[in-house]
Protein: F-box domain-containing protein
Amino acid sequence: MATSKLFLGGLPELINKIIQYFRNDFSTLHSCILVNRLWCRVAIPLLWEDPFSIPTKNYDFIEIYLHNLSECDKKELEEYGIVEESISSSTLFNYPRFIKCLNTHKLICSVEKWNVNSSNSCSTFNQISNSTRLISKLLFKTFIESKVNLHSFEFEMTIDNDHDYFNDTIELILQNPNFINNIKNLKFSKRVANITDRTKVDSFLLLLSSKCNSISTLHFKFKRRSEDLFIENFLSRIINLQQNLKKILFSYKTPPLHHLLSSLKNSNCSNTLKTIIFHNVNFRNIIIFKEVFEHLNVLDSVHIHYCYSLSTEFIQQIVDITKPFKLRTLFLSKLFEIKSFQLLLQKSGDYLENIGFGSLTSYELKQQLFELIEEYCTRIKFLKLPGFYNSQSINMAFNLIKNIGKNLNYLSIHFYKFGVLDQHDEEVNKLNSLLLQELGQILPPKLEYLNLSLMINSNDFEIFLKNSQNTFIKKLLIRNKMEMSDEKDNLEIDGENNILFYLENYIMKKKRVHYLAFKEDYVKKSDLFFSKDLVKKFESYNIKIRSYDDLNINSYEYIKEMY
Structure:
């Protein structure tokens, strides 16, 4: 098939499919740019779809955007000391046209960091703040004038300045409603205190609730309570307006949750909504859960991620739903009545795929939880295990891993004893050793992801690597919390009593992983990713080194991406 496409002139199509596969691997995309013009034309739009979200220390891409400003706008920038010579004089592409995703807070932060790096040392805080405000507004103006096809829009008020800066931009959007008319993903996030002047925010929400009816994903995120009630009606109207809503996310202590849930019952989404995610939500006084979920006919995925007030009364509402309740995720940080947990797993255990426990769960309760999971849950793919109280709790975890190993693909173990690691506690050291010495024997043959954040003795680590030689791990993350007797400035392979030495011999030379991250908490330059010579050495064996923080999977982000 591939050969026939080559002869039929289908090479660009094949190259496009190959490069699309790397859309979130930014270092690989940058390498693709250098191959030839065809690869460059395919890779560049992917890198510029959402540039404000790409982790970077270099914000010079702001200058490339500023090239598209009118002469009048450039003159305005000169008043803040941003001279035309500092702006790119020519560009190969119309970069603003490529943007698909826009987060207001990330845009402002990127501009601010570029501005601080570009400003002279005499610039005052107010000068930088005012120029950041102006540049943010001009960037929005550039995107609007470029008639971009915006796919995702995230209106995020994380700090007070976000509201002040975005007020300037709202007016531009209100004058050009087509800019957001066709968005598919909308996030409305408010984590600041009371908004003193709501006029423009109200106008913006009115636009969203009257014009944008093709949204497939809605994300509401709040951290405050009563002061957010003014937006309740707008958000409900946004829900009711949608014709093809497939996914909705509620984050933090969303104040109008009761009313928003009612909107789901009364909206057009009964036969479209497939996924609901609750993150850090307080379910206290929610009494319409059963009533709402009875109206959702195609719901296939429900996620409860570190939520509060999972009371007996609330769980009973779930149990009483006459339809299957397809609970795919359950992450717990608080204790609740074990009988309710059993009823919940009897109802939904067959659907559960992701589960995690906070370190505050008591040993006795955790033992009962593990036993119920083994009994009712057969499809666990993602398991997060923080917190071990004694050797019995570790053996319980091992039994659970063995019993769910058939489907297990993501395993994350962060060792804490009563929430704290104390390396001078002999029992803590023994528990870490036990975990490392025994874990390798019970791992499944293949894992997509293994993250071990422990106090690691190098001898125990060698035993783990020997015992796990029959397991292929695509992404392996190791974080060592053991304090060294002699503090080092850099990571180095300095003999057999060294974790890197064993990683080289058991991982690198045997090519047992695709991606590797290694971090030592008590080394100044602690991340392997920053040791250039070592990175080259591992990459010569086709093992890609990533920073621990970049490769580390945030369970909430994982759920948002996968469902």
Notes: Confidence is low (pLDDT under 50) at residues 4-9.
